[in-house]
């Protein structure tokens, strides 16, 4: 774990203070998290735009596919179950969607609003195998709650 999550959380809190627009919030988080660690090769949001459908939101990194149904991929699993998906080896995850062939591991977190509804998922992909741990998942969940569930 190489991210100083306390500093990151404070930076994001300061940058997003008073802002309620979800795209502005997502863009800011994607940027700040992406540049916080070399492990992060693709960092961004997929938004729930209609029941059972995720559509690309603000991101950093290479091209991301535009639409992901809840039935598919790591992002779909996070949206469907409402649970964090920590995937050390994407090749071992049934139905993983390879937007970039270089991706080896992935962390996807559900994003909830103040009422607890899943409004999006936050997806971080790494070109390194087994790049993420529970600490990343817990700390990033805290950052997302601080911004979207307030
Ligand atoms: N790998 C993800 C798809 C999104 S991208 O990698 C940007 C998945 O399986 O849900």
Account of the 3D structure:
The chain is an alpha+beta fold and 150 residues long. It has a single domain (5-148), classed as GAF domain (Beta-Lactamase), CATH 3.30.450.40. The protein contains four helices and six strands; from the N terminus they run ααβββαβββα. It has helices at residues 5-16, 22-34, 73-81, 134-148; strands at 42-50, 53-60, 67-69, 85-87, 105-112, 118-126. A six-stranded antiparallel sheet has the order 3-2-1-6-5-4, sandwiched between helices. Strand 1 (42-50) and strand 2 (53-60) form a beta hairpin. The longest helix is centred in the C-terminal third of the chain and has 15 residues, at 134-148. The radius of gyration is 14 Å and the shape is globular. The two termini are 27 Å apart.
Can you summarize this structure?
This protein is an alpha+beta fold.
Top keywords for this entry?
alpha+beta; Beta-Lactamase; single chain; 4 helices; 150 residues
- The number of distinct helices, counting runs of at least 4 residues, comes to 4
Ligand inventory reads: methionine sulfoxide
What's the domain count? Answer: 1
Q: Give the strand order, joined by hyphens, for the main sheet.
A: 3-2-1-6-5-4
What is the SS-derived class? alpha+beta
CATH superfamily, by name, is GAF domain
Named at the architecture level, the CATH assignment is 2-Layer Sandwich
Radius of gyration, Cα only, in angstroms? 14 Å
Q: Write down the CATH class.
A: Alpha Beta
N→C terminal distance:
27 Å
- Low confidence ranges: none
How many runs of DSSP E, i.e. beta strands? Answer: 6
Biggest pleated sheet: 6 strands, antiparallel
